[in-house]
Each structure stands twice: as structure tokens, then as C-alpha cells.
Amino acid sequence: MVFYEGFFQLSLLMNHPFQFQEFFQHHFIIQFLCFIMNLNLLLQFQCAILIQEWLLLLIIGLIDSIDNCIIDISIMILLIILIC
Asked: The organism sits in which domain of life (predicted)?
């Protein structure tokens, strides 16, 4: 439930990218860990769609604040590679 709530919040933020930077800095790691823990419960095609959504969010995060999210992005990309 926490995962879906977090993912819904992230989906809403995609419509409001100016709010993404604040969310990214404060809640990103917690939400991403929920995403990783629940990823194995999803079907394979759902996994691919969600990873695409996260990669899109990464791009938005890079555009909004390149200095603050490089470490978080490196960790996230490493985890995605390990999952796949």
C-alpha cells in the first residue's frame, strides 16, 4: 500500500515538475526503497512500465537540480541494473 501511495504521489508530481525538486530531495530514497521492496510483487510487464516511469522521473530530476541528485541517481540506476 505504501508503494502505491508513493507512486501515485510521484505520478501527480509529473504533472507539476516545479514541485519535483523538493519532493526528490526529501522523500526520494524512502519512496524508491518502497518501490524496490514491492517490485518483486509486480508482473514483468508492470515492472518494465514502472521502471520507464522512474527513468522519466530521473530525467526531470536531472533537469531540475543536477547538483543535488547525482548521488541518488547513481544509487537508483545501480539498483535498477541489479533488478534487471
From this structure: Eukaryota
